[in-house]
Amino acid sequence: MQVFTSVIVLGLCFAAFVISHIKDYKERKVDSMTSLAKVIGANSISTFQFKDNDYAEQILNDLQQVSPEVLNACILDKQQNIFATYTRPGSDTFHFTLPSPGAKQFEFTNNSLFIYSSIINNKDILGTVCLRTDLKELNDIKATQYSIALIILIVGIGLSFFIAFIVQRYISKRILKLANVMKEVNETGNYKKHVDDLDKDEISTLAQMFNQMMEQIFISQQKKDEFIAVASHELKTPLTSIKAYLQVLESIESDETNKKYVNKSLESVNRLQQLIYDLLDVSKIQSNQLYLNVTKFDVDNFIDDAIAEFQFVAGDHKILRSGAEINHTIDADRQRLEQVLTNLLSNAAKYSPGSKEIIVYTEKRDQELLVRVKDFGFGIAKEELNKVFERFYRTKTNSILISGFGLGLYICKDIVKRHHGKIWAENDGNGTSFYFSLPLNNAVKSK
Amino acid sequence: MFKKLLFIILMCYSSANAIAQQREVEANLKAAFIYNFIKYINWKAPADDPFIIAVIGTSPVYNSLQEIAKVESINGKKIVIVHFNNPDDITPCNILFISANSAYSLSSILVRVGKGTLTISEEPGYAEMGTAFNFVLVRDKLKFEANPHAIEAAGLKASSQLLKLALIVK
User: Which ipTM score applies to this complex?
Assistant: First the structure.
């Protein structure tokens, strides 16, 4: 676009330049030839008065030295009869016809300039001087002008290409760098990321403003995280004692109705406690303080335990295990991995209220443990499959009916990541499958 | 016989007529040349006098000059044509045209001519003998000789525009 514009501008400039130059040349030519014709006219007044056409021809013959570009010249008398005539040696003779009165006193044809100048003595028109000038010089000038303009135009286009290339690289590079940082921040949520741009132009101003904005976001994010950490910590202690007293009350209460109410309270307290644990985990993840307590344990044992434990609270749903036995041990944080599996199972139960089954499928693939939790519920929209792992993200369609903060999958993702594994979701027609894979031989260090 | 005679007479008459016509054309041309000379001469005459062209000896040029004088003027001054029969009649004038028909010798005329008068003759060799301009026929074309000394002696100045067309004699 820049190049196209510059080509147009340059082209117009050159066209104007060449046209004005040629026009200028023509005007000057007309002026000089008209002056020449006037001088000849003035000199030939006396030859008219004394009918001396020999001398008039002598005047015209002087043109050979004075102005060799004149091809033909002629002095016509009042009746337009030829009084004297001249033809440059080597040129063809030419018969002049006067332009109609009042018309222009010069005329350009393909190769010649015609000049007509009246010979006036005391307001009497005695005759006309006619000149025919060769315009070979003009054509030469035109050719040179066009070629010079073309060469400069080509050089100009080349230069503008070159400059545009450099400038574009310089500017685009920096803007792309900024965009990359934005993209990275968008994906990782790392608001500490800064753009280094130390120049003093608009782009670096933009980068600086971006950095300032990022700092502010980081600070408010930090404050929020601190608040969550403090609040959940402060909530945890009283809640623990409430739960302890409720458990004691549940064990000593014998009245059925009272026992029922105490159990309801316990259920709610458990939910509240789970939420607070989640919030605490999130703030640990945010402040990078989620540590793994790595032990060696048997995979099959771990999966069966987790299923059994969840089956205890699952209510109507039946958890089925399918696929091959793994027969392998793993070095990992058992509690955290149980948290992941429990979380996936609880999501599966929550989002498939009508159905009866949840399938846990295990497989050993390329020294990796692959676990798939399949439900027969609502499913997740395709564009939301990745977003469900984001912090506080809840699916748009069914979340209103189902309780939750949108923290579970975020925590799962982090835990799996810390085990060098992967977690993802897939839609498979009827319901959703959540997968996670863990390397079996890649020992994870305690942190 | 009679027819032949008549034919000869007619021939003579018509040729005489043609000669007369040619003479009239020549006289007109000479008169026009004389009138044009005036424009190329630097005159020193006082401003309000009429411009006097004199002719000595009978010549058809006199009539042609009269025709010009009727319509033309010199810088707003009237042109007056006068005629002298013999040199004794000569009075101050601006131009004196010495007709080829003049019966008097050139020298007798020239001694009577005062300063400031431009003399013009029409006889071969007269320019060498002291007239300022002298009409000659070159290849049947009317040309004129100029004697710069005579012009200078008369206290006049001829323009180079005029002299370049003249055949200069010394």
Answer: 0.77
